[in-house]
């Protein structure tokens, strides 16, 4: 059995890049600790399996040293006040996939002579938060009462996504990489990102997060689009890491979803804080964290007490059971890749303007019947 020379630094880099420990991989690769110590060598098949397990491009395993993989867009994520420096393979692949989809749709838009979107890049961090939130709500035709009347958070989020899509923003929501259910996205690594563009702005929302958290992420990333700023962020309501742009986007998102004037009008004298939070969370269809922030802004929660209350609520939410996905694959795929994008891609492919090979790559599928059934879901005749 032929052994191959692999730089032990690359073995270690691939494992750490995937966020894995030696103990987690020993069951599948019993000699991994010896490989990393340079005391044994793997076979070519073992290197191939190791690359697949750590989600590393196979060719990388034979480089002289680990490659640099900087994020292609500004990174505003923070954890405990520190910037996160190493993106996971899942995050990198999602950004690259969305950039490819955006590039395709940009060409599609230009081939149809559609106009540029005036709102992209129309604001700066100096724009008044209240003014910015009001302008974005107006552009979206964002009706607070319509959202209040939605029976569920999921319905409210669909309404919000539909409004953003209606003015030209491609909103893509997924909790997994492409269609691979074994590669789940981690909301603690990122909640979303924005890819600004004058004709094909794109917002990605981490669908593994709660519906209420996704609502805030979408609002936050839309604020980035109005700034004309591509970025990835954690978009937690009260976390900006001191970054001016993130602080502005957080404040605009909060004011857009839960206007301070509306909060003040909803307050009931003498009501217990927990009851107020629960009631306003249901009314505005947002996370309790957003409501706590707004109650602080309204003066109901003293600044000296806010930190401990917020932290306690954050811990409570982290301990809630996580819901699993499911549902019809084709309906989920349309939602995952955006209905407008998916329909345009299927139509262009059927008309012969896009290669089937390219459509399959952009949609993360490999079978003709899967593509055809997706087309039927979108009401194309086959």
Describe the structure.
This protein has 382 residues and is α+β, with helices and mostly antiparallel strands. It folds into 4 domains: 8-62, Orthogonal Bundle (434 Repressor (Amino-terminal Domain)); 88-257, no CATH class; 261-320, no CATH class; 329-377, no CATH class. It contains 18 helices and 8 strands. It has helices at residues 8-17, 22-25, 32-37, 44-53, 89-111, 129-140, 144-148, 153-166, 211-227, 244-257, 260-266, 273-284, 288-297, 303-318, 329-337, 339-350, 356-363, 368-377; strands at 78-79, 82-83, 170-174, 176-177, 180-184, 192-195, 202-206, 231-233. The strands form 3 sheets. A 4-stranded mixed β-sheet has the order 3-7-6-8, sandwiched between helices. A hairpin with a 2-residue loop joins strand 1 and strand 2.
How does the SSE layout of this entry go?
Elements: H1 8-17, H2 22-25, H3 32-37, H4 44-53, E1 78-79, E2 82-83, H5 89-111, H6 129-140, H7 144-148, H8 153-166, E3 170-174, E4 176-177, E5 180-184, E6 192-195, E7 202-206, H9 211-227, E8 231-233, H10 244-257, H11 260-266, H12 273-284, H13 288-297, H14 303-318, H15 329-337, H16 339-350, H17 356-363, H18 368-377
Parallel strand pairs: 3-7
Antiparallel strand pairs: 1-2, 4-5, 6-7, 6-8
Helix pairs in contact: 6-10, 8-9, 9-10, 12-13, 13-14, 15-16, 15-18
